[in-house]
User: Fold this.
Amino acid sequence: MIHKISVENIKCGGCASTIEKKLKKNSYVKNVDIDIESGNVQFEIDDMEANEKNIANLNTQLTSLGYPEVGSVDGLKSKTAKAKSFISCAIGKVNNKIG
Assistant:
């Protein structure tokens, strides 16, 4: 089953790399495709694992990285998410150069 989430703060390939690596750590996530321009994160989950709990877990992971679902955070939480995304972006860029 394919799911798509529109997230905030994706700026570059480093951001995409960080998101992809984090989501793929979940055994139930099969494929991850990220459209940087639109901010869409698309992933595939086995039908048996495609439940609300796992989708909520992936949303929580994205938010913890600084890439919350569009419209899900505001105010100070939005600023915090943006700051976290800068860190995730930098880590993704470094990992891309190393690996």
